[in-house]
Design goal:
With about 350 residues, the protein is an alpha/beta fold. It folds into two domains: about 200 residues, D-Maltodextrin-Binding Protein, domain 2 (3-Layer(aba) Sandwich); about 120 residues, 3-Layer(aba) Sandwich (D-Maltodextrin-Binding Protein, domain 2), CATH 3.40.190. The chain is about 45% helix and about 20% strand. The strands form two sheets. Strands 5, 6, 7, 8, 9, 10 and 11 form a seven-stranded mixed sheet that branches. A six-stranded mixed sheet has the order 2-1-3-12-4-13, with helices on both faces. Helix 3 packs across helix 11, helix 3 packs antiparallel against helix 12 and helix 5 packs across helix 13. The protein is globular and about 65 Å long. The chain starts with a helix and ends in an 11-residue tail after the last helix.
């Protein structure tokens, strides 16, 4: 458990214990502990703010398939696409009980950028992320039947006509990278949000759009596509994506790494305040998943690259959210889908 998680639990326990003793009900603590030890007594519902079939769905199912063994319960995913993830978040924050039996599973980068464009209806500190499962860099990719064979072809063609770019949503690290490249090179790109990774892949495969921008793991290993550029400072998979150039190096740019897939579990702050023991159980069992050999096998079975899967604590998630928020503020003019005039 990270220092961040320990501090949350310590503060909440001290506050709760103090209130209990002040009420003269210290004798109830053994019963409370017994109830806490029984958690969970039913399945955990997970709210996913995107469509089924994409990277979030894949990562959730792989992680939950092992987590359920350590937590001794099952996970019930519910998908709430719409408004670039807002529907899922508003549903989770507006309707889900604050009991630690209801969790969120979202892509931190895309959703935090969404709040930069337009704040949600709830306070941003009303929830937080506590278990990150991957760090997946953004990329540009084409269909193997496309006339565009590499990123230089994309830029050259984009200077002749406006190219359509399939994206899962406008406010997304990969989308931001595509528009930053367009501004740098003078190419013209028009982002087409296709509501989720699965639909974006279909749009590129059928030629509905000229090329796509998504987290890299969504494309690696798929013979229908070719990754041509990465928004990262290194290529962690040189044997699997040998034709992918590093955008900064290739075009003499200075973009920060755009981690486009940073999926993580989230929880309502009020739920943790009410049930700190339940939260500690969630954290301690989630931490065991990454160390379980069965988890790597579950990820590999999905054909996603294991190299992008890394566990992140609540403290890690907070750092990432702060980092991507600052990037979003700096490049906010890209997030509407428009290039600078």
């Amino acid at each position: 458990m990270s220092d961040f998680d320990k501090d949350i639990s310590r503060r909440i326990f001290v506050k709760g214990a103090g209130a209990t003793m002040g009420a003269g009900a210290l004798s109830l603590l053994p019963m409370q502990i017994a109830f806490a030890a029984a958690f969970p007594e039913r399945n955990i519902k997970v709210y996913v703010p995107t469509r089924a079939g994409g990277g979030a769905d894949r990562n959730l199912r792989a992680f939950a398939s092992i987590w359920k063994n350590h937590l001794n319960t099952n996970f019930e995913p519910g998908f709430y696409p719409g408004a670039a993830g807002r529907v899922g978040y508003e549903t989770f924050m507006g309707k889900a009980p604050r009991d630690c039996y209801h969790l969120l599973f979202g892509n931190m980068g895309a959703e935090v950028l969404n709040w930069v464009v337009k704040p949600p209806t709830f306070p941003l500190d009303a929830y937080f992320y506590f278990a990150q499962v991957d760090a997946d860099p953004g990329c540009l990719f084409v269909g193997t039947k496309s006339k565009l064979k590499n990123v230089d072809d994309i830029v050259a063609e984009g200077k002749k006509r406006t190219l359509t770019v399939g994206v899962s949503r406008l406010a997304h690290p990969a989308s931001l990278g595509a528009l930053a490249l367009a501004d740098k090179t003078g190419a013209k790109f028009n982002l087409i949000p296709l509501s989720g990774g699965r639909n974006t892949l279909a749009g590129v495969a059928t030629g509905e759009v000229d090329f796509g921008a998504l987290p890299t793991s969504s494309i690696v290993g798929r013979s229908t596509f070719k990754i041509v550029a990465l928004f990262d400072d290194r290529n962690a998979l040189p044997e699997k994506i040998p034709d992918a150039v590093l955008v900064n190096k290739h075009f003499n740019m200075n973009l920060p790494p755009l981690i486009a897939g940073a999926r993580a579990f989230g929880i309502q702050t009020e739920a943790v305040q009410k049930f700190p023991d339940r939260y500690r159980t969630l954290v301690s069992t989630a931490e065991k998943v990454y160390k379980d050999p069965a988890y790597k096998a579950a990820v590999v079975k999905t054909k996603a690259p294991w190299e992008y899967f890394t566990y992140g604590t609540a403290e890690d998630c907070k750092k990432y959210a702060t980092y991507i928020t600052e990037i979003g503020k700096q490049y906010k003019h890209y997030l509407t889908g428009k290039q600078k005039s």
